[in-house]
Specification:
This protein is α/β, with parallel strands linked by helices. The protein is 44% helix and 13% strand. It is globular and about 50 Å long. Bound molecules: phosphoric acid mono(formamide)ester and norvaline (NVA).
Length: 322
Amino acid sequence: MTPVATLRKIEKKFAVQDLISDGDLSASDLDLLFDLAESMKTSPRSYARSLEGRQLALIFEKPSLRTRVAFEAGMTSLGGHAIYLDHSKPRLGEREAIKDIARNLERWVDGIAARTFSHGAVVELAENASIPVINALTDFAHPCQAIADYFTLKEKFGTLSGLKVAFIGDGNNMCHSLMMAGAKLGARVHVATPPGFEPKAAVVAEAKAAAEAAGGEVRIFRNPEEAVSGAQAVYTDVWASMGQEFAAHLRAQVFAPYRVTAQLMDAAGPEALFMHCLPAHRGQEATDEVVDSVRSIVFDQAENRLHTHKALLVLLLKNGRN
Ligand code: CP
Ligand code: NVA
């Protein structure tokens, strides 16, 4: 199928308005996104005018390399434009009400991608803006990253159904998104955290229900070796997320047994790949040896942020205001 025909076919089936959490996308929505991302990765020039004249506002309270560049470069390569709004100071809602920001932006641009501390801030933007809103990371979830990660795993293994993905470390935003998206896709998501750092019980329950319906599983472990056993992917993330730096020293002690080392990769099995959303704190949650090993696909994940975010942008912004 030609890229144009691929896009037309996918556009007709994709009815999502906003991407606030992984719960907003069905398995079939995710498959459509993966198909379009694959076509865009293979034939980027065919999509060079897909968002001509469209504009995306990026509201970021926290720093970013991958997410910002993937959205900005993605908009440019689709013929559109992105406007970066640094909201590290003042944070969203401090200078003016979040609903007023939404009602202003919808008069000028076609979509908003927002990275905030509070998940509620992105929800409030979406509730008050008539244009699509994308969660570019909150303290609760990082759905854009999970989409790129499962797309990357599909590239590597051909299928996600039954694939075992072990997340080791903090039960944080990344852990939530990997559980929720993986469960829908029929993957087997195993999580190991220290006591007191488990993912939220409500997310575990939602992910378990989704996994049961899709033929996958979600299991929570204490022991990292047990969690990784037989896994095709071993995933970790920082021990102190953005905003938790004040607790980094204490967390470093608690999380030390959860470091991803060459030994832990061996415990997973010979086909296990190493994954990390990045930025990595080398020597903490993963050793240099693992991050730089032939099993590491962290830069493939980073590259695929671009292709998957372009697919997301085209599908969400296609009915833009301009
Ligand atoms: N993985 C990720 O979201 O990276 P940035 O924080 O650099 O955007
Ligand atoms: N859990 C990390 C992810 C960074 C992409 C954080 O929130 O800082």
